[in-house]
Specification:
The protein is 0% helix and 61% strand. The protein contains no helices and eleven strands. β7 and β8 form a beta hairpin.
């Protein structure tokens, strides 16, 4: 079984920064895309940033220039550096990954979610 565990959320003032981290563990063979999503109260979950196994990145227009996604393939981790935070960035941030793992004797590609970490931007 594969688990994704996020950390790094918290309460920060407008203009502040945080570094979110997500660690994948389990019988992992490889990880394809890794991504961060967020969901604000009463709103749908939205894609914030995605990074491929080769390091190519893509961002939501609302966070371009403020957020940076990165990954460490050797440690099966993905990070999201969030700068110049705004109140509208307040949400639960979720890690997501396409993971190839061993289940019994089979190699299986599945999509996994973390449990989420709360980011609150408020003065």
């Amino acid at each position: 079984q594969v688990q994704l565990v996020e950390s790094g959320g918290g309460l920060v003032q407008p203009g502040g920064s945080l570094r979110l981290s997500c660690a994948a563990s389990g019988s992992i063979l490889s990880i394809n895309n890794m991504a961060w999503y967020r969901q604000a109260p009463g709103q749908q979950r939205e894609l914030v940033a995605v990074i491929t196994s080769g390091g190519s990145t893509n961002y939501a227009d609302s966070v371009k220039g403020r957020f940076t996604i990165s990954r460490d393939n050797a440690k099966n981790t993905v990070h999201l550096q969030v700068n110049s935070l705004k109140p509208e960035d307040t949400a639960v941030y979720y890690c997501n990954a396409d993971v190839r793992s061993m289940i019994a004797t089979y190699r299986v590609l599945q999509n996994y979610w973390g449990q989420g970490t709360q980011v609150t931007v408020s003065s």
